[in-house]
Amino acid sequence: MKHQIKKFLLLPIAIFLSWTTITSYAQNQPxxxxxxxxxxGGRDLPAYGNRFNETPNIDRLVxxxxxxxxxxxxxxxxxxxxxxxxxQYSARVGIFDFIPGHWRPYEKVVVPHHDVQHxxxxxxxxxxxxxxxGYKTGYFGKWHLGNQEEHLPNNRGYDKxxxxxxxxxxxxxxxxxxxxxxxKRLSVALTDMGVNFIEENQKKPFFLFISHYDVHVQLDADKxxxxxxxxxxxxxxxxxxxxxxxxxxxxxxxxxxxxKTIEDLGIGDNTxxxxxxxxxxxxxxxxxxxxxxxxxxxxxxxGNPLRFIATENNPLRAGKGTLYEGGIRVPLIIKWxxxxxxxxTSDAIVSSVDFYPTFLELSNGNRPKGQTLDGxxxxxxxxxxxxxxxxxxxxxxxxYHHEEPMSALRKGDxxxxxxxxxxxxxxxxxxxxxxxxTDLKYSFPEKFLEMKExxxxxxxxxxxxxxxxxxxxxxxxRYEWGKNPYSN
Length: 488
What we know:
By secondary structure, the protein is an alpha/beta fold. It has twelve helices and 16 strands. Strands 1, 2, 4, 5, 6, 7, 8, 9, 10 and 11 form a ten-stranded mixed β-sheet that branches.
């Protein structure tokens, strides 16, 4: 409970814990496993209150570890992935939209573009830092930070990597090519890669990153699992999309197999196990076409709304591609036997930028020279339930998607959102208004001014990019989507 939480200022990671504790962690150099879902919403898991989807393995992970209520990511995939690899907010690293990026050529403003369509070369990745600390590193799955060979994970700090580059869930293609069973579903193949990597490196400290494509559109899953959920009683307060639920079960099966491998090898006590999502859930596609694909495209007949609705994030507002809570608040569950209490919930405000400094502290690694790290180590929150109640989390999404370009700051209970087209602001109190329905800027003018100034200061500090007026604005054609001219 909040009245039991020790409040303190977040300081550089070198003084977070006593040197004795840090030395203890560094000597053990715990293994780190990060499993990341794609587009899994903040309310899609039973652990977060969902009453339709089934995740027995993730439920067991929750019972053995810590569940975070206030974990954040960027609103779409590439910015979150870039922030994990760099330890920087997407505005600073320069990857603020998915690669290559959305484009509406006739809108009111011209949105900014990435300087490069890959993770910038000067960035020292978390993989490279972990290698320098003596870890074996593995990356399997979606990367979305550049598909040219020199930008793939096996050239950006990962000893072994297979990057998913297309083909869908049942005909996946990888770079480098994967020599395993090519007839396996993508989630199964990625799990196989992870299991093999763990078995090969069980005697050394290792960092394993499995980046799933589930539950991204186009939705597709095994028919037997889909039938299971088609025949299940529906939750009247949730879409209960059977294909989406089946994809979540595919994710859960992967988590279960990785957990079992670690347990069977007897290395669980020295392994930090993380489950996370790259952004909020997709309620429907931004381009309003059906979101079912593959063999599942006709599971729901013409006229059925579930051809267009994957999930909902209630009581969180909106979803992927927005800076409302439904777009950026995500599931996060972390297990570390003997270090993290089992079956506990944390109110700590944490972000994707926090993984880098956390992993550095665990591995006794060195901060990359000349590279700003925007996050803080999560170890105090994980091991002592200590965190800053007034933590600031910034998000910047200066492009069109499900909403207009926006920038946002959460500080403690308060959140401000700036519309980068109109220049208007909204101020919300998330403790009393989790759905972000009541703008309080006129009721709390001093708080509004404080939050506005902090957001502006951060935007300047990170050299955040902004839209500019569009001389080709066309009221009749403004909602048309085009190809990003900077995609190449």
